[in-house]
């Protein structure tokens, strides 16, 4: 159980069903969150600018602009965490949302407990990143990483990663040469609640490969151990980096 923070997080809830917004508001406010409401895509983008929320709960099906288009626009201007609200059984919607930059999804109908748990898990991922004090990690001449400054350099160019991508890369690099199972990765990067969501790992490994590998189809850094999990290539390191965080 995650302890409540003394900070009051602001959540933007976007859904054209007012009863759903009221249900979500009631449960989030009972758990100490501040809630801002929007009932369509246009209002959502206005509230994003005006309210500067810490997280957005965004429904997929809306009348004026659907949730996917709203998400595309959000990602052009902000990296605020977004949880998509999807209809039961719409697997394509879930995958599409994650590919467009959503941090998570919740399938309707959902319980108050699941709602609060997912919100807290996503907020935790964005605020509790373990910083590395060892300075720049030179994997090879092509790839350099500085977790303390949240910087990844590929062929001399700074590559922009989302918070979850940083966390995934961090745990893989800290355990370079060792295989991390899907369950281990899910627990470390997403949280214990996500043990049954293996597709998150596959999707975000693919994201990382597209950003750091020269040929994502034939990776040399993020290696697949079929049926088990993934490992980061065992690069030459100083003694201070030889012990991972397993």
SSE map:
Blueprint: E1 10-14, H1 18-30, E2 34-38, H2 41-51, E3 55-59, H3 67-77, E4 82-86, H4 91-99, E5 104-107, H5 112-127, E6 137-138, E7 143-146, E8 151-154, E9 157-159, H6 163-174, E10 180-181, H7 182-190, H8 198-212, E11 222-225, E12 229-232
Parallel strand pairs: 1-2, 1-3, 3-4, 4-5
Antiparallel strand pairs: 6-7, 7-8, 8-9, 10-12, 11-12
Name the features.
single chain, 246 residues, alpha/beta, 5-stranded parallel β-sheet, 4-stranded antiparallel β-sheet, 8 helices, 39% helix
Descriptive overview:
The chain contains eight helices and twelve strands. A hairpin with a 3-residue loop joins strand 11 and strand 12 (229-232). With 246 residues, it is α/β, with parallel strands linked by helices. 39% of the residues lie in helices and 19% in strands. A five-stranded parallel beta sheet has the order 2-1-3-4-5, with helices on both faces. A four-stranded antiparallel beta sheet has the order 6-7-8-9, with no helix packed on it. The radius of gyration is 19 Å and the shape is elongated. The chain has helices spanning 18-30, 41-51, 67-77, 91-99, 112-127, 163-174, 182-190, 198-212; strands at residues 10-14, 34-38, 55-59, 82-86, 104-107, 137-138, 143-146, 151-154, 157-159, 180-181, 222-225, 229-232.
């Amino acid at each position: 159980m995650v302890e409540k923070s003394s900070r009051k997080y602001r959540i933007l809830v976007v859904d054209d069903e007012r009863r759903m917004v009221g249900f979500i508001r009631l449960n989030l406010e009972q758990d100490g969150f501040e809630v801002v409401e929007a009932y369509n895509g246009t209002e959502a983008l206005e509230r994003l600018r005006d309210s500067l929320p810490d997280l957005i709960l965004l429904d997929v099906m809306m009348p004026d602009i659907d949730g996917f288009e709203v998400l595309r626009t959000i990602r052009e201007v902000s990296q605020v965490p977004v949880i998509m609200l999807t209809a039961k059984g719409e697997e394509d919607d879930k995958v599409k949302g994650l590919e467009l930059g959503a941090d998570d999804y919740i399938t309707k109908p959902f319980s108050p407990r699941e709602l609060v748990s997912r919100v807290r898990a996503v907020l935790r991922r964005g605020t509790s990143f373990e910083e590395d004090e060892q300075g720049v990690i030179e994997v090879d001449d092509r790839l350099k990483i500085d977790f303390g400054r949240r910087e990844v350099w590929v062929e001399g160019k700074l590559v922009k990663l989302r918070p979850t991508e940083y966390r995934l890369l961090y745990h893989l690099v800290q355990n370079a040469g060792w295989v991390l199972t899907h369950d281990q990765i899910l627990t470390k990067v997403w949280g214990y609640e996500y043990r049954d969501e293996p597709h998150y790992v596959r999707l975000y490994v693919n994201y990382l490969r597209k950003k750091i590998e020269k040929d994502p189809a034939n990776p040399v850094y993020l290696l697949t151990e079929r049926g088990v999990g993934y490992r980061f290539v065992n690069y030459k390191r100083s003694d201070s980096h030889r012990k991972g965080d397993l």
